[in-house]
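Box 3.1 — From sequence to structure: Nucleoside diphosphate kinase
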Amino acid sequence: MEKTFLMVKPDGVQRNLIGEIVSRFEKKGFQLVGAKLMQIPTELAEEHYGEHKERPFFGELVEFITSGPVFAMVWQGENVIATARHMMGATNPKDAAPGTIRGEYGVIVGKNIIHGSDSSESAEREIGLFFNGEGLVEYKRDVNNWI
Ligand code: RTP
Ligand code: MG
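Predicted structure (token representation):
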């Protein structure tokens, strides 16, 4: 089953949005298979956002994502990678549709509440970086028969 890596960023944790965000993916019908509250070390942040190393905002991005605890999660379900990105909304909250997570709760691009893997390659890479093959739980859920 397809898996993706989602993370409530430090602003989302500070604003008490963990429950709201978890609830949205639960209600959609996706299944939580791993989660942890953690403070990201600088080296992990730099690796996670490595594709943006040359961008002018890289320093700020790493500083922000390491500035407080994040809630790291792995979710699974059919097409979960693309669907989660739709549910998150556009990167810049000013362009994110109402009803999406960033559209409802975000204001500026540097504090956009949630991260989500953007492809199957990045999902695999990010799940490996944050969970390192440990802490994922496979379990049957009766409700899956109804989704
Ligand atoms: P994320 O990786 O955090 O899920 O966000 P994303 O795919 O929607 O956007 P991406 O292009 O990967 O950018 C990563 C994060 O960098 C910050 N950013 N700042 N100042 C800027 O112009 C700028 N552009 C991007 C955002 O916080 C974005 O989530
Ligand atoms: Mg990205």
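Summary of the box: Residues 118 surround magnesium ion (ligand 2) (CB under 6 Å).
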